[in-house]
From TrEMBL:
Catalytic activity, EC: 5.1.3.2
One cellular component (GO) term of this entry: cytosol
Pathway this chain belongs to: Carbohydrate metabolism; galactose metabolism
Transmembrane segments: none
Record keywords, A-Z: Carbohydrate metabolism, Isomerase, NAD
UniProt record similarity statement: Belongs to the NAD(P)-dependent epimerase/dehydratase family.
Cofactor(s) this protein requires: NAD(+)
Top-level division of the source organism's lineage: Bacteria
Annotated GO MF terms: UDP-glucose 4-epimerase activity
Descriptive protein name: UDP-glucose 4-epimerase
InterPro entries: NAD(P)-bd_dom, NAD(P)-bd_dom_sf, UDP_G4E
Enzyme class of the recorded protein, top EC level: isomerase
Natural source organism: Algoriphagus yeomjeoni
Residue ranges constituting the NAD(P)-binding domain according to the UniProt record: 5-327
Length: 335
Protein backbone atom coordinates (compact mmCIF):
# COMPACT_ATOMS: atom_id res chain seq x y z
CA UNK A 1 0.00 0.00 0.00
CA UNK A 2 1.41 3.41 -0.98
CA UNK A 3 2.08 5.83 1.86
CA UNK A 4 0.95 9.38 1.11
CA UNK A 5 2.06 12.16 3.42
CA UNK A 6 -0.77 14.65 3.96
CA UNK A 7 0.33 17.95 5.47
CA UNK A 8 -2.61 19.63 7.17
CA UNK A 9 -4.36 16.29 7.13
CA UNK A 10 -6.48 17.10 10.17
CA UNK A 11 -7.91 20.18 8.46
CA UNK A 12 -11.11 20.56 6.50
CA UNK A 13 -10.03 19.43 3.05
CA UNK A 14 -7.14 17.28 4.32
CA UNK A 15 -9.35 15.14 6.56
CA UNK A 16 -11.87 14.43 3.79
CA UNK A 17 -9.00 13.60 1.45
CA UNK A 18 -7.66 11.11 4.01
CA UNK A 19 -11.01 9.31 3.84
CA UNK A 20 -10.99 9.19 0.04
CA UNK A 21 -7.36 8.03 -0.05
CA UNK A 22 -8.12 5.10 2.25
CA UNK A 23 -11.12 4.22 0.11
CA UNK A 24 -8.82 4.18 -2.94
CA UNK A 25 -6.30 1.88 -1.25
CA UNK A 26 -3.64 4.36 -0.13
CA UNK A 27 -2.24 4.73 3.37
CA UNK A 28 -2.42 8.38 4.47
CA UNK A 29 0.20 9.61 6.92
CA UNK A 30 -0.97 12.81 8.51
CA UNK A 31 1.18 15.66 9.74
CA UNK A 32 -0.63 18.59 11.31
CA UNK A 33 0.28 21.12 13.98
CA UNK A 34 -3.41 21.42 14.94
CA UNK A 35 -3.19 25.22 14.66
CA UNK A 36 -6.52 25.26 12.84
CA UNK A 37 -7.87 21.80 13.63
CA UNK A 38 -8.41 19.44 16.52
CA UNK A 39 -6.93 16.11 17.47
CA UNK A 40 -10.37 14.53 17.76
CA UNK A 41 -10.63 14.72 13.97
CA UNK A 42 -8.22 11.76 13.97
CA UNK A 43 -10.61 9.71 16.12
CA UNK A 44 -13.45 10.63 13.79
CA UNK A 45 -11.39 9.54 10.79
CA UNK A 46 -10.80 6.22 12.46
CA UNK A 47 -14.53 5.84 13.12
CA UNK A 48 -15.36 6.59 9.48
CA UNK A 49 -12.69 4.42 7.91
CA UNK A 50 -12.39 1.68 10.53
CA UNK A 51 -8.63 2.12 10.27
CA UNK A 52 -5.87 3.21 12.63
CA UNK A 53 -4.27 6.32 11.18
CA UNK A 54 -0.66 7.38 11.43
CA UNK A 55 -0.50 10.89 12.82
CA UNK A 56 2.43 13.17 13.60
CA UNK A 57 1.68 16.34 15.51
CA UNK A 58 3.97 19.09 14.34
CA UNK A 59 4.86 21.70 11.81
CA UNK A 60 5.43 20.47 8.27
CA UNK A 61 8.40 22.81 7.89
CA UNK A 62 10.14 21.06 10.78
CA UNK A 63 12.92 19.26 8.91
CA UNK A 64 13.82 16.91 11.73
CA UNK A 65 10.21 15.81 12.06
CA UNK A 66 10.01 15.21 8.30
CA UNK A 67 13.19 13.15 8.43
CA UNK A 68 11.79 11.14 11.32
CA UNK A 69 8.67 10.40 9.28
CA UNK A 70 10.79 9.35 6.27
CA UNK A 71 12.86 7.06 8.48
CA UNK A 72 9.71 5.35 9.73
CA UNK A 73 7.76 5.14 6.45
CA UNK A 74 8.54 4.89 2.80
CA UNK A 75 6.65 7.87 1.41
CA UNK A 76 5.61 7.71 -2.24
CA UNK A 77 3.80 11.04 -2.53
CA UNK A 78 2.81 14.20 -0.72
CA UNK A 79 -0.38 16.24 -0.66
CA UNK A 80 0.46 19.62 0.74
CA UNK A 81 -2.60 21.27 2.31
CA UNK A 82 -1.02 22.92 5.33
CA UNK A 83 -1.28 26.70 5.01
CA UNK A 84 -2.86 29.73 6.60
CA UNK A 85 -5.96 30.79 4.68
CA UNK A 86 -7.64 33.77 6.34
CA UNK A 87 -7.69 36.46 3.68
CA UNK A 88 -8.38 39.33 6.10
CA UNK A 89 -5.70 38.29 8.57
CA UNK A 90 -3.18 38.03 5.73
CA UNK A 91 -3.60 41.73 4.96
CA UNK A 92 -2.79 42.59 8.58
CA UNK A 93 -0.01 40.04 9.09
CA UNK A 94 1.46 39.48 5.62
CA UNK A 95 4.82 38.21 6.86
CA UNK A 96 3.14 35.48 8.86
CA UNK A 97 1.51 34.31 5.62
CA UNK A 98 4.63 34.55 3.46
CA UNK A 99 6.72 32.83 6.12
CA UNK A 100 4.34 29.98 6.74
CA UNK A 101 2.82 29.29 3.33
CA UNK A 102 6.01 29.68 1.32
CA UNK A 103 8.39 28.37 4.00
CA UNK A 104 6.44 25.16 4.39
CA UNK A 105 6.35 24.51 0.64
CA UNK A 106 10.12 25.02 0.42
CA UNK A 107 10.67 22.64 3.32
CA UNK A 108 8.46 20.02 1.67
CA UNK A 109 10.29 20.34 -1.66
CA UNK A 110 13.69 19.99 0.05
CA UNK A 111 12.40 16.97 1.87
CA UNK A 112 11.03 15.41 -1.31
CA UNK A 113 14.28 15.95 -3.15
CA UNK A 114 16.41 14.55 -0.33
CA UNK A 115 14.22 11.48 -0.05
CA UNK A 116 13.57 10.98 -3.77
CA UNK A 117 9.83 11.36 -3.34
CA UNK A 118 8.40 12.04 -6.78
CA UNK A 119 4.77 13.08 -6.49
CA UNK A 120 3.22 16.22 -5.08
CA UNK A 121 -0.32 17.57 -5.18
CA UNK A 122 -0.50 21.20 -4.11
CA UNK A 123 -3.55 23.12 -2.80
CA UNK A 124 -3.93 26.19 -4.92
CA UNK A 125 -6.96 28.41 -5.30
CA UNK A 126 -9.12 30.09 -7.92
CA UNK A 127 -8.03 33.27 -6.16
CA UNK A 128 -5.07 33.30 -8.60
CA UNK A 129 -7.48 34.35 -11.39
CA UNK A 130 -8.69 37.51 -9.61
CA UNK A 131 -11.80 38.83 -11.40
CA UNK A 132 -11.56 37.22 -14.83
CA UNK A 133 -12.87 39.06 -17.85
CA UNK A 134 -14.24 35.93 -19.49
CA UNK A 135 -16.26 33.28 -17.66
CA UNK A 136 -16.06 30.43 -16.95
CA UNK A 137 -12.33 30.39 -16.23
CA UNK A 138 -10.14 27.79 -17.87
CA UNK A 139 -6.64 26.91 -16.74
CA UNK A 140 -5.43 29.13 -19.61
CA UNK A 141 -7.15 32.19 -18.16
CA UNK A 142 -4.32 34.54 -17.19
CA UNK A 143 -3.58 34.85 -13.52
CA UNK A 144 -3.82 38.37 -12.10
CA UNK A 145 -2.17 40.29 -9.33
CA UNK A 146 -3.41 38.85 -6.06
CA UNK A 147 -5.94 40.81 -4.01
CA UNK A 148 -4.35 39.74 -0.72
CA UNK A 149 -1.07 38.41 0.67
CA UNK A 150 -2.86 35.08 1.14
CA UNK A 151 -3.73 34.98 -2.56
CA UNK A 152 -0.23 36.04 -3.44
CA UNK A 153 1.25 33.10 -1.50
CA UNK A 154 -0.78 30.73 -3.69
CA UNK A 155 0.48 32.41 -6.84
CA UNK A 156 4.09 32.43 -5.63
CA UNK A 157 3.88 28.79 -4.58
CA UNK A 158 2.62 27.86 -8.06
CA UNK A 159 5.60 29.72 -9.55
CA UNK A 160 8.04 28.00 -7.21
CA UNK A 161 6.65 24.64 -8.22
CA UNK A 162 6.93 25.45 -11.91
CA UNK A 163 10.54 26.58 -11.54
CA UNK A 164 11.44 23.60 -9.41
CA UNK A 165 10.03 21.14 -11.93
CA UNK A 166 11.80 22.98 -14.77
CA UNK A 167 15.08 22.59 -12.93
CA UNK A 168 14.77 18.83 -13.47
CA UNK A 169 14.25 18.22 -9.80
CA UNK A 170 12.93 14.76 -10.64
CA UNK A 171 9.44 15.41 -9.36
CA UNK A 172 5.91 15.43 -10.73
CA UNK A 173 3.53 18.10 -9.49
CA UNK A 174 -0.11 19.05 -9.90
CA UNK A 175 -1.57 22.28 -8.52
CA UNK A 176 -5.29 22.00 -7.93
CA UNK A 177 -7.06 25.34 -8.07
CA UNK A 178 -9.99 24.95 -5.71
CA UNK A 179 -13.15 26.94 -6.17
CA UNK A 180 -15.35 27.24 -3.03
CA UNK A 181 -15.29 24.06 -0.94
CA UNK A 182 -18.49 23.41 1.03
CA UNK A 183 -20.31 20.44 2.57
CA UNK A 184 -18.97 17.78 4.87
CA UNK A 185 -18.64 14.01 5.08
CA UNK A 186 -22.17 12.58 4.77
CA UNK A 187 -21.72 10.81 8.13
CA UNK A 188 -21.61 14.19 9.89
CA UNK A 189 -18.45 13.07 11.73
CA UNK A 190 -16.02 15.50 10.10
CA UNK A 191 -16.41 18.91 8.47
CA UNK A 192 -15.14 22.45 8.53
CA UNK A 193 -14.16 23.74 11.99
CA UNK A 194 -14.03 27.52 11.78
CA UNK A 195 -12.23 29.12 14.71
CA UNK A 196 -13.99 32.27 15.89
CA UNK A 197 -16.35 34.12 13.57
CA UNK A 198 -16.43 32.42 10.18
CA UNK A 199 -15.26 34.55 7.26
CA UNK A 200 -16.66 32.16 4.67
CA UNK A 201 -20.27 32.11 3.57
CA UNK A 202 -21.51 28.60 4.30
CA UNK A 203 -20.16 28.25 7.86
CA UNK A 204 -21.76 31.64 8.58
CA UNK A 205 -25.05 30.40 7.13
CA UNK A 206 -25.02 27.21 9.21
CA UNK A 207 -24.09 29.06 12.41
CA UNK A 208 -26.86 31.59 11.82
CA UNK A 209 -29.40 28.84 11.22
CA UNK A 210 -28.18 27.20 14.45
CA UNK A 211 -28.66 30.44 16.38
CA UNK A 212 -24.94 30.91 17.12
CA UNK A 213 -24.94 34.07 15.01
CA UNK A 214 -27.83 36.44 15.13
CA UNK A 215 -27.81 37.47 11.52
CA UNK A 216 -25.99 36.81 8.28
CA UNK A 217 -25.03 39.84 6.22
CA UNK A 218 -25.12 39.41 2.46
CA UNK A 219 -22.25 41.53 1.23
CA UNK A 220 -23.95 43.47 -1.54
CA UNK A 221 -27.00 42.89 -3.76
CA UNK A 222 -26.27 45.50 -6.41
CA UNK A 223 -23.68 43.64 -8.46
CA UNK A 224 -24.14 42.85 -12.12
CA UNK A 225 -25.45 39.29 -11.53
CA UNK A 226 -28.88 37.62 -11.81
CA UNK A 227 -30.00 38.73 -8.34
CA UNK A 228 -27.30 41.28 -7.54
CA UNK A 229 -25.33 39.09 -5.11
CA UNK A 230 -21.91 37.58 -5.90
CA UNK A 231 -21.51 34.32 -7.82
CA UNK A 232 -19.25 31.44 -6.79
CA UNK A 233 -18.69 27.80 -7.76
CA UNK A 234 -19.47 25.74 -4.65
CA UNK A 235 -17.87 22.31 -4.70
CA UNK A 236 -18.62 19.51 -2.23
CA UNK A 237 -15.54 18.75 -0.17
CA UNK A 238 -15.89 15.00 -0.89
CA UNK A 239 -15.72 15.67 -4.63
CA UNK A 240 -12.77 17.97 -4.07
CA UNK A 241 -11.08 15.29 -1.96
CA UNK A 242 -11.64 12.77 -4.73
CA UNK A 243 -9.89 15.09 -7.20
CA UNK A 244 -6.71 14.65 -5.12
CA UNK A 245 -6.90 10.88 -5.43
CA UNK A 246 -7.35 11.21 -9.19
CA UNK A 247 -4.44 13.67 -9.35
CA UNK A 248 -2.12 11.22 -7.59
CA UNK A 249 -3.09 8.42 -9.96
CA UNK A 250 -2.48 10.69 -12.95
CA UNK A 251 0.93 11.78 -11.63
CA UNK A 252 1.90 8.14 -11.41
CA UNK A 253 1.49 7.85 -15.20
CA UNK A 254 3.76 10.81 -16.03
CA UNK A 255 7.48 11.17 -16.65
CA UNK A 256 9.36 12.89 -13.86
CA UNK A 257 9.67 16.68 -14.21
CA UNK A 258 5.97 17.12 -14.84
CA UNK A 259 3.86 20.12 -13.83
CA UNK A 260 0.26 20.96 -14.55
CA UNK A 261 -2.70 22.84 -13.05
CA UNK A 262 -6.36 21.86 -12.85
CA UNK A 263 -9.49 23.74 -11.83
CA UNK A 264 -11.60 21.90 -9.29
CA UNK A 265 -15.14 23.20 -9.30
CA UNK A 266 -18.55 22.03 -10.44
CA UNK A 267 -18.69 24.23 -13.52
CA UNK A 268 -21.80 25.99 -12.16
CA UNK A 269 -22.06 29.43 -10.62
CA UNK A 270 -24.54 30.12 -7.83
CA UNK A 271 -25.26 33.43 -6.17
CA UNK A 272 -25.01 34.06 -2.45
CA UNK A 273 -28.80 34.52 -2.29
CA UNK A 274 -29.35 31.24 -4.15
CA UNK A 275 -27.17 29.49 -1.58
CA UNK A 276 -29.24 30.93 1.28
CA UNK A 277 -32.54 29.99 -0.36
CA UNK A 278 -31.35 26.51 -1.29
CA UNK A 279 -30.06 25.98 2.25
CA UNK A 280 -33.43 27.00 3.70
CA UNK A 281 -35.32 24.77 1.28
CA UNK A 282 -33.34 21.54 1.63
CA UNK A 283 -32.98 21.82 5.39
CA UNK A 284 -36.36 23.41 6.15
CA UNK A 285 -34.78 26.01 8.41
CA UNK A 286 -34.80 29.81 8.29
CA UNK A 287 -31.65 31.82 7.90
CA UNK A 288 -31.93 35.31 9.35
CA UNK A 289 -30.17 37.59 6.90
CA UNK A 290 -29.95 41.18 5.80
CA UNK A 291 -28.41 42.90 2.83
CA UNK A 292 -25.30 44.85 3.75
CA UNK A 293 -22.50 46.75 2.09
CA UNK A 294 -20.17 45.18 -0.42
CA UNK A 295 -17.09 43.47 1.08
CA UNK A 296 -13.95 45.28 -0.09
CA UNK A 297 -11.87 43.18 -2.46
CA UNK A 298 -14.68 40.74 -3.26
CA UNK A 299 -14.69 39.07 -6.65
CA UNK A 300 -18.07 39.68 -8.31
CA UNK A 301 -18.44 36.41 -10.15
CA UNK A 302 -16.33 33.39 -10.85
CA UNK A 303 -16.96 29.79 -11.77
CA UNK A 304 -14.85 27.07 -13.29
CA UNK A 305 -14.57 25.61 -16.72
CA UNK A 306 -14.02 21.99 -15.72
CA UNK A 307 -13.47 20.45 -19.17
CA UNK A 308 -9.81 19.74 -18.42
CA UNK A 309 -10.25 17.87 -15.15
CA UNK A 310 -13.35 16.11 -16.52
CA UNK A 311 -11.52 14.70 -19.50
CA UNK A 312 -7.96 14.22 -18.21
CA UNK A 313 -8.78 12.71 -14.79
CA UNK A 314 -12.22 11.43 -15.73
CA UNK A 315 -13.33 13.27 -12.60
CA UNK A 316 -16.90 14.50 -12.30
CA UNK A 317 -18.60 15.93 -9.24
CA UNK A 318 -21.17 13.59 -7.78
CA UNK A 319 -22.75 15.93 -5.21
CA UNK A 320 -25.19 18.76 -6.00
CA UNK A 321 -25.44 22.13 -4.26
CA UNK A 322 -28.43 20.68 -2.37
CA UNK A 323 -26.29 17.75 -1.17
CA UNK A 324 -23.53 20.12 -0.11
CA UNK A 325 -25.84 22.33 1.91
CA UNK A 326 -27.60 19.36 3.48
CA UNK A 327 -24.24 17.92 4.56
CA UNK A 328 -23.05 21.30 5.86
CA UNK A 329 -26.17 21.53 8.03
CA UNK A 330 -25.82 17.92 9.17
CA UNK A 331 -22.27 18.72 10.28
CA UNK A 332 -23.37 21.91 12.05
CA UNK A 333 -25.86 19.81 14.00
CA UNK A 334 -23.02 17.48 15.07
CA UNK A 335 -21.10 20.51 16.31
C1 LIG B 1 -12.41 33.66 -0.02
C2 LIG B 1 -11.18 34.34 -0.51
C3 LIG B 1 -10.38 33.38 -1.35
C4 LIG B 1 -10.02 32.17 -0.57
C5 LIG B 1 -11.25 31.54 0.04
C6 LIG B 1 -10.80 30.52 1.04
C7 LIG B 1 -11.73 36.72 -0.68
C8 LIG B 1 -11.97 37.85 -1.61
N1 LIG B 1 -11.51 35.53 -1.26
O1 LIG B 1 -13.16 33.31 -1.16
O2 LIG B 1 -9.20 34.00 -1.79
O3 LIG B 1 -9.37 31.23 -1.37
O4 LIG B 1 -12.04 32.54 0.72
O5 LIG B 1 -11.86 29.90 1.64
O6 LIG B 1 -11.76 36.89 0.52
N2 LIG B 1 -20.43 36.34 1.89
C9 LIG B 1 -21.49 37.04 2.45
N3 LIG B 1 -21.61 37.08 3.79
C10 LIG B 1 -20.72 36.45 4.63
C11 LIG B 1 -19.65 35.72 4.04
C12 LIG B 1 -19.54 35.71 2.68
O7 LIG B 1 -22.31 37.62 1.73
O8 LIG B 1 -20.88 36.54 5.85
C13 LIG B 1 -20.31 36.31 0.43
C14 LIG B 1 -19.03 36.96 -0.06
O9 LIG B 1 -19.22 38.34 -0.25
C15 LIG B 1 -18.79 36.21 -1.36
C16 LIG B 1 -19.39 34.82 -1.09
O10 LIG B 1 -20.23 34.96 0.03
O11 LIG B 1 -19.51 36.83 -2.38
C17 LIG B 1 -18.32 33.80 -0.79
O12 LIG B 1 -17.48 34.32 0.22
P1 LIG B 1 -16.36 33.44 0.94
O13 LIG B 1 -16.97 32.21 1.50
O14 LIG B 1 -15.63 34.33 1.86
O15 LIG B 1 -15.41 32.95 -0.23
P2 LIG B 1 -14.64 33.76 -1.37
O16 LIG B 1 -14.75 35.20 -1.23
O17 LIG B 1 -15.07 33.20 -2.66
Amino acid sequence: MKNILITGGAGYIGSHTAVQLIEAGYNPIIIDDLSNSEEKVLDRLEEITGRKLTFYKGDCSDKSLLEKIASEHEISGVIHFAAFKAVGESTVQPLKYYQNNIGSLLAILDFMKANRIKDLVFSSSCTVYGQPEVLPVTEETPRQDAESPYGNTKKICEDILMDFVKSQAGIRVISLRYFNPVGAHPSGKIGELPIGTPANLVPFVTQTAAGIREKLTVFGDDYDTVDGSCVRDFIHVMDLADAHVKALAYLGEQQVDFYDVFNVGTGNGNTVLEVIRTFEKVNRVKVNFEIGARRPGDIVKIWADTAKINSVFNWHPSYSLEDSLRDSWNWQKTL
